């Protein structure tokens, strides 16, 4: 039994390589060169080229859609002429007046400016609107009671204009007056905030609402009297 074990150990020992032999074998193997596989680099190069083209195209598209990668692109400044600035100012004023009219006046005078027959007079093509701006300013500031005649018809028999009971600034009055005087075919001049302030000051002590005949007498030139 001991003899067989010794033979097996000797056999295994004889089959093992020494460290020196292993190193020598590696050196020999490293010297052996294999022929490179034909066209082995073509496929990777094609993929690199295609991928590069995709990145380039995407970069161009991204630049166009994000203003050349600027988070806050400059706003183009358009210099307006004096006439254009004035037209824009008046347009904004009329737009503001239209909103005020819709909120405070349209329920009586109607959105089309035609009023309600026998009660609230029309504002379209009305001499009370196209007259001196002091007429409409005083009506809004102090109110109007009694009858008035517009286009041969009587109005104001069942209700009175009482804007004085509603807080409204001089600017708001100027804006809504300008809108009314230039809407529904009306072509009268603009009413300024300074003018409204002047009218308010002139009649600050007045407590009563205006009567139609009073205003016609006060602005007789506008009514041809």
SSE inventory with pairings:
Layout: H1 2-15, H2 19-31, H3 42-65, H4 82-104, H5 106-109, H6 127-130, H7 133-142, E1 144-145, E2 148-150, E3 153-155, H8 170-182, H9 193-202, E4 210-211, H10 212-218, H11 220-223
Parallel strand pairs: 1-4
Antiparallel strand pairs: 2-3
Folded structure, characterized:
The structure is a single chain. This protein has 225 residues and is mostly helical. The chain has 11 helices and 4 strands; from the N terminus they run H-H-H-H-H-H-H-E-E-E-H-H-E-H-H. The protein has helices at 2-15, 19-31, 42-65, 82-104, 106-109, 127-130, 133-142, 170-182, 193-202, 212-218, 220-223; strands at 144-145, 148-150, 153-155, 210-211. Strands 1-4 form a two-stranded parallel ribbon. Helix 4 crosses helix 8. The protein is rod-shaped and about 135 Å long. The model is unreliable at 10-15 (pLDDT under 50).
Total number of distinct structural domains: 2
Mean pLDDT: 81
Shape: rod-shaped
Structural class: mainly alpha
Biggest sheet layout: 2 strands, parallel
Q: Number of helical runs?
A: 11
Tell me the strand percentage band.
under 5%
For the record, what is the CATH homologous superfamily label of the largest domain? Cytochrome c-like domain
Q: Unreliable segments (pLDDT under 50, ≥5 consecutive)?
A: 10-15
**Secondary structure: number of strands:** 4
C-alpha Rg (nearest Å): 47 Å
Task: List the defining traits of the structure above.
two-stranded parallel sheet, Cytochrome Bc1 Complex, Chain D, domain 2, about 55% helix, 11 helices, two-stranded antiparallel ribbon, about 220 residues, mainly alpha
């Amino acid at each position: 039994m001991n003899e067989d074990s010794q033979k097996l150990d000797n056999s295994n020992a004889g089959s093992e390589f020494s460290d020196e032999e292993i190193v020598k074998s590696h050196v020999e193997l490293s010297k052996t060169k294999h022929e490179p596989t034909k066209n082995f680099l073509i496929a990777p190069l094609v993929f690199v080229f295609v991928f590069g083209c995709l990145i380039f195209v995407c970069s161009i598209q991204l630049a166009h859609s994000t203003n050349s990668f600027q988070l806050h692109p400059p706003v183009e400044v358009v210099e307006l002429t004096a006439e254009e600035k004035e037209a824009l100012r008046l347009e904004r004023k009329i737009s503001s007046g239209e909103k005020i009219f819709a909120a405070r006046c349209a329920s009586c005078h109607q959105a089309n400016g035609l009023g309600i027959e026998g009660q609230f007079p029309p504002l379209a093509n009305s001499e009370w609107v196209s007259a001196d701006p002091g007429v409409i300013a005083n009506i809004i500031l102090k109110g109007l009671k009694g009858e008035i005649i517009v286009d041969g018809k009587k109005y104001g028999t069942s209700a009175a204009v009482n804007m004085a009971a509603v807080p409204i600034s001089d600017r708001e009055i100027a804006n809504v007056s300008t809108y009314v005087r230039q809407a529904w075919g009306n072509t009268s001049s603009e009413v300024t905030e300074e003018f409204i302030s002047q009218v308010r000051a002139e009649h600050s002590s007045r407590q009563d609402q205006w009567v139609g005949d009073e205003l016609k007498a006060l602005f007789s030139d506008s009514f041809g009297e």
